[in-house]
Amino acid sequence: MTDAEDGLRADARANRAKIVDVAREALARDPAVSLNAIAKAADVGPGTLYRHFPNREALVLAVYRREIEAVAAVAQQLVVRHPPREAFRRWCERLAKFGRMKQGLADVLGTATSERDLMYLRELYAPILEALDQLLRAGEASGDFAPGADPEDVLQLLGFLWRIKPDAQGTARIERLLDLVVRGLNAPVSPTTRE
């Protein structure tokens, strides 16, 4: 439960969650969708929406936070269910979907220029980095990945996931690039020496 949901009645929490869910879908389809259209689709009045989210940025950040939490949470499930390389690949697929949704919201997120807003966005990314760290450490423990990969470095590399159009050609390119990333993370088969 987020700070914004603390102290809310159950029906108010349900309304808030419904608004965020509807907004996620609506903003992914059309980043310029009106808040009134979101309220109508969520079957709540505009006043209810504005009580929870006083402006567009507040709603977008709530959607963004929910997506980050979902992407981060899936890492634990994947590590338990799949070998480390496969868990990493599957998590990257989920990250790609999140990244494409985020691209649709980039204009609104780009308005977060105050130091407070920027610090908030950095805090939001912490669960993604923790999830990535968990995936990398699982790969290390199994011997699949070389030790010491920095999650922030790997996340920077993975930025291509949401910059490539997800059509047939783009999907093939994403697969090839993920192959390169995974090969880069692979533990060497035998120790090499450098002179």
Any key phrases for this structure?
Tetracycline Repressor, domain 2; 195 residues; elongated; single chain; 9 helices; mainly alpha; 0% strand; Arc Repressor Mutant, subunit A
Architecture overview:
The structure is a single chain. The chain has nine helices and no strands. It has 195 residues and is mostly helical. It folds into two domains: 49 residues, Arc Repressor Mutant, subunit A, CATH 1.10.10; 130 residues, Tetracycline Repressor, domain 2, CATH 1.10.357.10. Helix 1 crosses helix 2, helix 1 packs across helix 4 and helix 1 packs across helix 5. The mean pLDDT is 84.
Write a brief caption for the model.
With 195 residues, the protein is mostly helical. It has helices at 10-29, 35-41, 46-52, 56-81, 84-104, 106-109, 115-142, 151-157, 168-185. The termini are far apart.
Please give the share of residues in helix.
Answer: over 70%
Mean pLDDT: 84
Name the shape in a single word. elongated
Q: Could you give the order of the helices and strands?
A: HHHHHHHHH
Name the poorly predicted regions: none
CATH architecture of the largest domain: Orthogonal Bundle
Structural class by SSE content: mainly alpha
**Count of distinct structural domains:** 2
What is the third-level CATH name, the topology of the largest domain? Tetracycline Repressor, domain 2
Taking all Cα atoms into account, the compactness measure Rg is: 19 Å
Strand content: under 5%
What is the level 1 CATH name of the largest domain? Mainly Alpha
The count of helical stretches stands at 9
